[in-house]
Request: fold
Amino acid sequence: MKKEDLPNIIPVFPLSNFIIFPRTTVPLNIFEPRYIKMIDESMKSNRIIGMIQPKKTGELRKPDLYKIGCAGKITSFNETDDGRYLIVINGICRFQISDEIKNENLYRECEVKYDDFYGDLNEKTNEIKFSDLSLIFQNLKGLFKKQGYEINWKELEKQSLDQTINTLSMASPFSLEEKQVLLETKDLNIRKEKLQEILNTYILDNFNNKTLQ
Reply:
């Protein structure tokens, strides 16, 4: 997608502890009436929605939002017998919220800008090698296992490097705030470093817990 094709006003889907990155694909199960309506409207236009994390402040039905999210395109749509929508979203480009639009809809819409993240649209090769990730992989495997998470590591290693790092950032059992930090990092090298930093705190906590027992 070209930058001029990115819409400046998008519906936003606030989902806690959930992030998507450009060039990653995620399935979503939509069942709330307001988001069913949002998908209906989106399917009639450009099929682009903004995935954003809500903060722990604001109203229950209308929490404050983080400023940075990621726009995704609905690439697959199925309706179940009980009226739910099963969709697949493909991450396109991160955005920053400029303003929230006052509307009559049940769902929220925001005016957004992509200026800081146009690099997300470029297919580029990175200097990071898979060997650089071996320690991260090793630490993540231990953490995922401890938390009861299942990851198909063999499939993961077939992906491109940025997809691998982004998939791990999305799927990791990190907090909402930690995932937001990973989403907001400008490039892959910084994201890899942040991923390692966050992992180190988990490993240190685990080590301290063991020694204190």
Strands lie at 9-14, 25-30, 48-52, 54-58, 63-65, 68-79, 85-101, 108-113. The CA atoms of residues 144 and 151 lie 8 Å apart. The chain has two domains: 3-121, 130-212. The mean pLDDT is 85.
